[in-house]
Amino acid sequence: VCVCVCVCVCYMGFCLWFLCFLFVLFTVFCIFFAFVFFVPLQKKRIIEMTPKLIHLCWFSNDPYPVEIKVCLDTWKRLMPDYVVKVWDYAAAKSIGSAFIDEALEARKWAFAADVVRFYAVYTEGGIYMDSDIYLHHRFDEILPEDGFVTFNEKDKEEFGLQAAFFMGDRKSVV
Fold first, then answer.
1. Which side of the chain, N or C, has fewer Cβ within a 10 Å radius?
2. To 5 degrees, how large is the angle CA 135–CA 139–CA 57?
3. How many percent of the chain have pLDDT more than 90?
C-alpha cells in the first residue's frame, strides 16, 4: 500500500509539472504568435492610414485669384497640421500620361486635373480638394483609416459622385 501511495503521489506530481510546462509553452507560443502576426498588421495599418496630405492642382503660371487665396487661407488656418502639395505643370508632366500631356499643352486644365487628382491620391494617399473649396471646420472625423471616401451630389434628378473633394489611403481602390 505504501508503494502504491508513493507511485500515485509521484505520478500526480509529474502530471501537475507537465500541465504547468504545457501552460508556459502555450503562453510563450501566444506571445510569439502575437508579435509575429498581429504587430506587423498593426504597423501596416498605421502606415496605410490616410495621410494628412492635401493635393491641389494648379497648372497655370498665373497667380491665384483673390477668391482662391481666401479658400487656401482657410485650409492653412483650420488644418495647420496638413501638408498642401500643389501639382503644377511640371509635376503633372512628370506622370508620363499622354492624355495629361495633351490636355496641358491645350491648356485644358480641368481635363488634366481629372486624371492628376486620382493619380495623386492613388499613389500617395491623402485628400484632394479643388482650389475653390472654402473650409468652415476640420474634417478629421470623416478621414478614413483605410479605403476611399467621396460624397454624392444630387443635381436635378441625377445622382452622381463628385470629384472636387475626396480622400483615401495610398493604393486604395477607387
1. N
2. 60
3. 46
